[in-house]
Amino acid sequence: MKNYYLIILVLAFIFFSSKCFAQKVELQINFGHYDITEIFEGGGGKKSHRFNANLRAGSVLNFNLKKDFSFRPGLIVGTKGRFLSTKKDIFPSQYIKSNLNIWYADVPLLFRKKIDIDNLNFFAEAGPYFGYGLKGKYHFREYTKYDEIEVDFFKSVGWDNSDVDNLKRLDFGLSAGFGFKLNLFTVGFSYFQGLRNISQLETMIRRNVSYELFVSYSLFDF
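The structure assignment produced for this chain is given below.
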């Protein structure tokens, strides 16, 4: 339950800070490809990470700093993870498909530069982000060479110990993006690169990465 208390606390902070300080409050929806780069010490077989689409949503505040600069903290909640499959030619008798989906509450802290071109309101933005893992689940399937399912099971992600399937709960990294604003709507593209190794194993490096399209709508303008 403490994970849900954290979300409620952050949402309350955003609401009250918007009433006191922020010039704008926006609702935002993100759609994109979410992956986890995985590097195994000493190799371990070629693996293919396939397209893994998910939706995320949240709220963003806007604090004007100068004429064309603003600071934009926010809270984005949704699933990240990866879809992995081994090649059939590596294991002649079998191949593996594995999904890992993790619910994260991400807090991006972005600085935006407005760029006006021919009366169009473009922008570029960049800054750090911090993430908190709420819950996650593995779905593992093992197939025979005849495409028959031999093993099929689900397992919940554990946090902060050395089990092979467990992850570090806290994440952080960098984000950059660009887009344009049209009246109360904003459309853009953003890239998130995790810097922290979220794996618990010394022989594996795991980092979150995502490519997102986002649409936001301004609710309040103070």
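Interim note for the steering committee: The chain has a mean pLDDT of 80. The longest strand covers residues 120-144.
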